[in-house]
Amino acid sequence: xxxxxxxxxxxxxxxxxxxxxxxxxxxxxxxxxxxxxxxxxxxxxxxxxxxxxxxxxxxxxxxxxxxxxxxxxxxxxxxxxxxxxxxxxxxxxxxxxxxxxxxxxxxxxxxxxxxxxxxxxxxxxxxxxxxxxxxxxxxxxxxxxxxxxxxxxx
Amino acid sequence: xxxxxxxxxxxxxxxxxxxxxxxxxxxxxxxxxxxxxxxxxxxxxxxxxxxxxxxxxxxxxxxxxxxxxxxxxxxxxxxxxxxxxxxxxxxxxxxxxxxxxxxxxxxxxxxxxxxxxxxxxxxxxxxxxxxxxxxxxxxxxxxxxxxxxxxxxxxxxxxxxxxxxxxxxxxxxxxxxxxxxxxxxxxxxxxxxxxxxxxxxxxxxxxxxxxxxxxxxxxxxxxxxxxxxxxxxxxxxxxxxxxxxxxxxxxxxxxxxxxxxxxxxxxxxxxxxxxxxxxxxxxxxxxxxxxxxxxxxxxxxxxxxxxxxxxxxxxxxxxxxxxxxxxxxxxxxxxxxxxxxxxxxxxxxxxxxxxxxxxxxxxxxxxxxxxxxxxxxxxxxxxxxxxxxxxxxxxxxxxxxxxxxxxxxxxxxxxxxxxxxxxxxxxxxxxxxxxxxxxxxxxxxxxxxxxxxxxxxxxxxxxxxxxxxxxxxxxxxxxxxxxxxxxxxxxxxxxxxxxxxxxxxxxxxxxxxxxxxxxxxxx
Lengths: 154, 523
What we know:
By secondary structure, chain A is α+β, with helices and mostly antiparallel strands. Chain A has helices at 2-18, 36-47, and strands at residues 55-58, 61-69, 72-74, 77-80, 85-91, 97-103, 106-112, 118-123, 129-134, 148-153. In chain A, the strands form two sheets. In chain A, strands 1, 2, 3, 5 and 8 form a five-stranded mixed β-sheet that branches.
């Protein structure tokens, strides 16, 4: 069993160095956890912040700069088209928070720590509708009663 | 008349004096079994608080639309539940099992009094912290745990910086006590180990994991002192660094009781199966896998946090080492039971350890997908996790600890063995506890997989039937444990009277030798 563990560990290192490891490349709440085009969109967004400082479509990718306060999200409504590529930059200035969004094609679940932005890249569902996200980390008395938001696919 | 009153008064005075003497010998025991009893009673006391707080929360959770106004009450219960469990039950139960494992291997706690003083300091410090009305959850994540304003109060009663600072110092005293006790147990084990004689497997696990507790508990003390310094000296707290420090303790702590109990499984299951352990060599080698894995695994609790890839890679590797060790335990014990000529299902101690073992398998299987980065977000912070770790608590820890308690009663009186009726009642009680709570564990995991988040007081209505069923099953299961424990104690007291032994629990079972070591009388 130990040999299997060592073999698996070594294989993961080889894959990470070759840039082919899915587990450690996509889905992590890190800048490096996003695909290259999403990283470029974030870099552009940070270098050229939009007037509203909140969201902008960069090369077809909707970049949203989101802040999680006690006890609300800003913005708490994101309108997208079916199949739209989305990047969330999540800031949490007060306490540790996060976002839990259950979509037909998977679950988005990341935490955000004060002082360190978290990044999420995902593709909007192809089915129109409203998808509610929740705050998954205990951020105070009203985290489950007040802290929600909606991804509106229109 | 006055003469009769004086006689009565003298009689009462004498009885009080005898009672106080017994209380003192219980509170400050002088031998190993006395130490085991002290920590066992500590465990049971905290367990009652844990259960009461849990049932309070379950009452709120049958309603999906609780308002934020419920928050302070609910999260006070949540923190009472968590702190009493993790800072009360876990260390007390771990030290009870470790000390009992030493007793079963002929070792002795020569520093029993020092251990008892630390027991009281540690537990009373926790009581002081709890009296402050903490409601930040047992994780004490920063900066929520140091937030004290109109939006959130980390302590509902202690509201000045000095009092909050003192509460965190009290918690640090609790964890420092929890560091020194295993060091003393280790020193005592070393001092009283017979030369040229191997420790039995139970004590080998007990002593090894006493070392793990002593190595990892200081991380908790450091984290708590950091908070105290924030309030008393204005030292800022770095959230991510605090989390990493906390989890260096926060992960191993979940093994503080299970791993010494693994030693108990290795010790009792072969006896019940009427054969040798399938491989004692595997069992002893396994200590290294479990010890290394449990200590180095800590950041696998932070997969959804922005941690660098290199730390994640390490956490996955450590998790696999730990999984290998746990798998080896299941294989070794499974082969021992399957290759036996019949398991002793009639003995309540044998049944307790078999149920604890099966519970560990069924609860442990749920842990397998958790360390992987692409799977973890599906279940992180959901009731899947709550279901998983509670399954381990309800089966391996509580039923396994019940098994140790049953043998502790037997060890406390050489003439005592469970009657047929008591054995049946104990086994029935354990099953009545295990079946509903096993169902609860899986219900929690299913609702968690479907999206029920943990620590919430408001949740989507689709989860209401799950939560109703969970609360109802908990009401059904709790009397099972009460039945098992009370049947054992009842049988012990009744039969003790019948056989006419009235020697005290602390001293009846050990024979003092001139080197200050006890001789085990059972096993």
